[in-house]
């Protein structure tokens, strides 16, 4: 290399290497301080795209789990209401069985009929008031829960499991058509295949002419109604199991996706601290060499003496 004064090539090379070392150190410091290997697109454009896609999946999965947990609460609310109706239906069965006994007189059977009517009013009230966040649960309408951002990824509770515990052809049957019952002003909207049949039979009981045969018919209708409610509760239980298993699967999916995203975008501290140490050494070496290179033109002064 010729001895020149206007251009110090060695100093330029040393300065360039010093800048490179400082840039790598800055990158290492940023990664170590943020915990992210990818802080901007230039760090890894492809990796940034993969991490963003995984984040979308993770966010939708986490929200899906929350949706399904809400679904479990909804199903439990509906089942609890049907359980209460089932207890009252059991009471009606007990009263009808009692009324079918030959020792019962008209006054006693009239009293039993009065309680059975009141129980049916209470059952109808359960069906009307059972809501979840403003959504009526026992109205024979299927309800779906979104499990992820995929449009078709849903879990549905069937309309059978959420069937009305009152309505159908027996809708509008007045509870009590004479005496004190007229002032109640209630109607029963039970299914024509279960609660409606039971209500019709109870409502048809006439004052002072209730026979043991009438009571046996009500007992039979009560048993059928109870079986229907049990089947409906079983459907809700199956739906709850499906929702919970789906939620568990999505939670595992979210955990695996989170681990995959970590591999793409998170800082490997062992590797990055090694890079930082290397950068610090290179910076110190480049600084020392730059100082040496800046002194090299002094050699020319000795030639001029």
Question: In a nutshell, what does this entry contain?
Answer:
The protein has 305 residues and is mainly alpha-helical. The chain has a domain at 63-131 and 165-264: f41 fragment of flagellin, N-terminal domain, CATH 1.20.1330. It is built from 7 helices and 6 strands.
Structure description:
This protein has 305 residues and is mainly α. The protein has a domain of 169 residues: f41 fragment of flagellin, N-terminal domain (Up-down Bundle), CATH 1.20.1330. Helix content is 66%, strand content 5%. It contains seven helices and six strands. Helix 2 packs antiparallel against helix 3 and helix 4 packs antiparallel against helix 5. The longest helix has 55 residues. It is rod-shaped and about 140 Å long. The two termini are 21 Å apart. About 9% of the residues have low confidence.
Largest sheet: 2 strands, antiparallel
| Percent of sequence in beta strands | 5-15%
Flag low-confidence runs.
167-192
Percentage of residues in helical conformation: 55-70%
Largest beta sheet: strand ordering: 1-2
The CATH architecture of the domain at 63-131 and 165-264: Up-down Bundle
Radius of gyration: 40 Å
Q: What count of helical segments does DSSP give?
A: 7
Within CATH, the superfamily of the domain at 63-131 and 165-264 carries the name f41 fragment of flagellin, N-terminal domain
Give the SSE order as H and E letters. HHHEEEEEEHHHH
Q: CATH topology of the domain at 63-131 and 165-264, what is it called?
A: f41 fragment of flagellin, N-terminal domain
Q: Mean pLDDT across all residues, rounded?
A: 84
Tell the overall outline.
Answer: rod-shaped
Number of E strands: 6
CATH class of the domain at 63-131 and 165-264: Mainly Alpha
């Amino acid at each position: 290399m010729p001895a020149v004064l206007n251009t110090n090539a060695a100093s330029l090379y040393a300065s360039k290497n010093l800048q490179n070392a400082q840039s790598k150190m800055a990158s290492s410091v940023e990664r170590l301080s943020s915990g992210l290997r990818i802080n901007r697109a230039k760090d890894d454009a492809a990796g940034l795209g993969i991490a963003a896609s995984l984040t979308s999946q993770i966010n939708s999965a986490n929200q899906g789990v929350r949706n399904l947990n809400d679904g479990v609460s909804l199903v439990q609310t509906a089942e609890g209401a049907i359980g209460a109706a089932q207890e009252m239906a059991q009471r009606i069965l007990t009263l009808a069985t009692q009324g079918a006994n030959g020792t019962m007189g008209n006054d006693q059977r009239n009293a039993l009929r009065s309680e059975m009517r009141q129980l049916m009013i209470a059952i109808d009230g359960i069906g009307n008031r059972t809501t979840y966040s403003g959504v009526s649960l026992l109205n024979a309408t299927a309800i779906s829960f979104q499990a992820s951002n995929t449009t078709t990824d849903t879990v549905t509770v069937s309309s059978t499991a959420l069937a009305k515990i009152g309505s159908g052809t027996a809708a509008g049957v007045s509870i009590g058509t004479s005496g004190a019952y007229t002032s109640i002003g209630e109607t029963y909207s039970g299914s024509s295949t279960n609660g409606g049949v039971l209500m019709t039979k109870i409502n048809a009981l006439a004052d002072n002419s209730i026979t043991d045969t009438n009571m046996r018919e009500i007992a039979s209708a009560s048993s059928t109604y109870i079986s229907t409610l049990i089947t409906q509760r079983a459907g809700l239980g199956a739906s709850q199991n499906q929702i919970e298993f789906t939620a568990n699967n999505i939670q595992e999916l979210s955990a695996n996706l989170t681990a995959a995203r970590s591999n793409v975008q998170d800082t490997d501290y062992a590797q990055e601290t090694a890079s930082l140490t290397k950068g610090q050494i290179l910076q110190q070496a480049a600084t020392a060499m730059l100082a040496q290179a800046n002194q090299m033109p002094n050699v020319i002064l000795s030639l001029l003496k």
